[in-house]
Amino acid sequence: MAEGLSPLAARMEPDQAAGLLVAVLAKETDPSARAALVEGLSALAGRMDPHQAAKVADFLVALAQKTNYPAGWGLAAILSSLAARMEPTQAATVCAQGADILLAALTKEPISQDCADLVMGLSSLAARLEPQQAAKVCARGADILVAAVAKETGDSFGRANVSAVLSSLAARLEPIRRRRSRTA
Question: What pLDDT band is residue 72 in, cutting at 50, 70 and 90?
Answer without folding.
Answer: low
